[in-house]
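Trying the structure run again after the queue cleared.
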Amino acid sequence: GLPPPRGNPTPPRYLSRSECRDLVDEIQAYVEAWQKGAPEPQQQASREWLLRGVRLAVSTGLRRGSLVALRWQDIDFEDEYVYAWADAAKRDGHTVPLFEDARAVLDAIGPEDRGLVLTRADGTAVPPSTFSKQFARFRERAGLDAEVTLHTCRHTFASWLVQEGVPLYKVSHWLGHSSIEVTEQYAHLAPTQSDDTAEEVFS
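Done. Tokens:
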């Protein structure tokens, strides 16, 4: 692959498939225990919203603020895309394809006509700080290093796409980057294309 851009010598940390599975499994186990009436003494609240939120973060690449503000009316199930707003004033939005895993999460919740997609058990919005705090708690339980934060899910979305050969310009658009230069931090993950591969295109 290509070397990392000069301005960013340290590539962003992203989750491997197995790390992501371990994290999701850890949250899933807690949710199932809570549903069976056996929550941990120090934590009586369901974390179903966290399970959904983490899966959506990895499969959409949305930033934390966009995730907690995501509303059902921002999702087009027919044309299969999510419209992500950059801020609460609904400015500078971008679209993200509705991939299979994100669709599965959303189908399991609703879908609803309107309202927030991610809500706590009492129907209230998830505070961004709570999202990060609870993510960190389960990241530790899953045995992942402290470099892994909620934003790592966004890096994971981008990294997995680039590894599969999705062009940087597409990934850049789906992330809502202001320029492709920002997306080039993932360029080193692109599959190496040999001359033989190029020959196959026109043979």
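The two ends are 24 Å apart (CA to CA). Worth checking whether this holds up in the mutant runs.
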